[in-house]
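Quarterly update from the structural biology core.
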Amino acid sequence: MASHRRPKQPRHGYTSVLTATAAVTVALSAQSASADPLPDPNKKGVQAQIDRLYEQATQATEKYNGAKESAGKLQKEADNLHEEVVRKQAALNELRQQLGSAATAQYRSGGLDPSLQLLLSADPDAYLDQASGLDRLSARQSDTLQRFLSQQRALQQQRAQAAKKLGSLQETRKELGSKKEEIQGKLAEAQRLLNTLTAEERAERAATEERANRASERTELASQQGELGNEASGSGRAAAAFNAAKSKVGMPYVWGATGPGSFDCSGLTSWAFQQANVSLPRTSQAQANAGTRINSIGALKPGDLVIMRTDLSHVGFYAGNGQILHAPKPGAQVRYESMARSGMPFMWGVRI
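Predicted structure, tokenized:
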């Protein structure tokens, strides 16, 4: 006989607890979603892209600086060659006039010397292959002719060198324009990505920069009080350069700038040493080999140059206590910063 048990009735208390718990969970989830959203991994990726673009822009800036320095040197060399060509052409014209006067005198006295006829022809250089003809000229005319032909060859060589320099200058200027476009493109892309961030995210980035600036101010105060180590490296000039750089804390980073109101990284170091009457190369790569190499951070002294990144594309001053004084990147100021927190690997130091 079948059992006719009554089905169990639901426990209203347990059901109520489940319902209440679910409601609370939904409410808390909704509140959490509206008040404290989970971080968007895509936004973190955007910020990383921005930082990477700034890094690439600073690397391209050093290449731009190198091309600009090369263009300046080539322009100066081309100008000097042009001036030399003008001087030699004037001297050559004077010799030509002297020989022309001699030819005129000989013609009036009974005929033009064959040697002078050859000189005044389209190929006077061929005259040297006929040295026997020199006895037809006076000793003075012979000397003048030799100097004329020698200076003519020198002038031709000088013109060829000037043309080569101008060709190199043109190529370097093309490279300069290409690097400038690359830098501007990366900065424009970084700005475009910045514009995709929310106001809160942009404020957070600004706050990060502000914290770095405040930390720099504390380091500057410690430096003034001698807490970072007062012994400057190398010479009085290194100390003078370091002091000049310290006077520019707070100035903005601007790519390609060499002061006095804005700087890029190697622009700051080259400007500072210029104030101490020391001429440094313009780029960080060249400055990396401008003095005595210091391989250990522990052996660095305030005023030593610090070379950063594997491609040697960043440079600053060692400030003591693991700190670097530098112009770090676009959007930042000249400031003190912990080398360990700079995000750039230390390669070596340079003592000027």
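The chain is about 60% helix and 10% strand.
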